[in-house]
């Protein structure tokens, strides 16, 4: 099992090395992308007033489909969409009614975002990670609340100000 992990780590290191090499031109970069392309939500462009409110309120941005899509595109452009994806996964998780489905989704969220070396590992402190892991012994609707609050605060403090300064946002308020 350790041999398998070492082999996996070596493969990842090689793939990262290839990605990190400076290409001669941007056209040389090929990033494998397996996810199905998302269909843009059928939404109307926000009014100037709505868009201006997003500067001070991450929640208002996240509640607006157009704002959410713009924010997600911006984060993807800087390869930092894992926090938003985690936040959305937590919101979806809280809508689950069946305990069996909840346990299954909790395991999926943990493996994708929380565990060390997860493919889309979010940046949360050890204390929050430990509490979240303890909460997952018996999954409930609030299992990820603490981690989700930490990530929300991080996006509010870090990602939102960068988004507001970005072309993505500036185009909306022209």
From TrEMBL:
Main localization (coarse): cytoplasm
Localization (cell): Cytoplasm; Membrane
Keywords: Cytoplasm, Membrane, Signal transduction inhibitor
Annotated ranges, domain RGS: 57-173
Top-level taxon in the UniProt lineage: Eukaryota
The keyword Cytoplasm belongs to this UniProt entry's keyword annotation: yes
Keyword Membrane in record: yes
GO (cellular component) term, any one: cytoplasm
Role description: Inhibits signal transduction by increasing the GTPase activity of G protein alpha subunits thereby driving them into their inactive GDP-bound form. Binds to G(i)-alpha and G(o)-alpha, but not to G(s)-alpha.
Protein name (Swiss-Prot/TrEMBL): Regulator of G-protein signaling 5
